[in-house]
Amino acid sequence: MRRSVGIRAVAGVCLAFVIALGLAVLGIAETPAHVDLPELLLESMGQSGVEHPVTAVLLNFRSYDTLLEIGVLVIAGIAGISVSRTTSLEDPELRTSDSLLYALQRWFVPLMLVLAGYLLWAGADRPGGAFQAGAVLAATGVMMRLGGIPMDFLRPGILLRLGLALGFAVFLLIALASAIGGEAFLAYPPAVAKQLIILIETVLTLSIAMVLLALFVSAPVNRAAEPGEGESP
Amino acid sequence: MSASLLYALAGVALCGIGLFGFITLAHLLRKLLAFNLIGSGVFLVLVGLAQRHGEPDPVPQALVLTGIVVAIAATALAVVLIRRYFHLSGHTTLRAETPERVPGRLKPQTRGDNPE
User: Fold this and answer.
1) Is residue B96 part of a domain?
2) Interface predicted TM-score (ipTM)
3) What is d(CA A156, CA A167) in angstroms, rounded to the nearest whole number?
4) Between A and B, how many residue pairs show a Cβ–Cβ distance under 8 A?
5) Chain A hits for B74, Cβ within 8 Å
6) Is residue B113 part of a domain?
């Protein structure tokens, strides 16, 4: 009885929250904006080094966000592999010898790698970029992992740590280099903006894929002696 | 009411449902799912509100793209923490009903449901 009263109170609070948020959204929708951001963006697209507005915002005009984001990802990845109990992230017990899955992988893995490369390259002038490419690359890794293809680079050694930190390190290095060179922090020289953005996107793709894959792999595997996930405590 | 405003209001509704689930559900994985629902609602509000001039605004889209990647990584980290907590305590909720059952192993303070 007390529980149902509590749930009703929570439902009331949530309803009030939804109404307040909805009114705020309606209020914002009615107020005209002081700055026309899309117009501003279109005007300065010429100096960005890329043709697609979302990529220009992500990697040039607001690259600060992206730098912090890859920092968050690296911290999450390192925390994930630290929590993991297994000494090797590449678990031999998970290897299967399913011939159908193996045959499917032989078709899919090269295709997905090509797709990841395409997405990375397409980010310059159409939807795509480091994040989509990294997600596809991580999905490829997840599929290889589930199919039991051994992945030596996922051992928690120097290679994994280097791969996790590579994107953040290169990004930070470029940001610092432009600051030391006399420009603002993260302001690329316009002449090499495109090359720098492509370099950053490539290393970001690798690092994002490795972080996501390491987090997928580092969830501790259930042993037979320990209680299963479905059992009630 | 335009279509983009409808998206924003749907995002508001998702936020409300997620908040309700986050408070009332006890299982940590369900809490995590509810938290992700709040996040999706916020993304929908951001993207929906920004299209009111008829065409999408790239700046909020880029911010939401960043947010999605961070949310995925944070969710994965939360799942790793929840599974570790489950291995240590044998519980799937944060309430420690019988702390003396596994003396010295139970860590009720290990919160795994706060991905951001």
Assistant:
1) no
2) 0.75
3) 18
4) 125
5) 72, 76
6) no
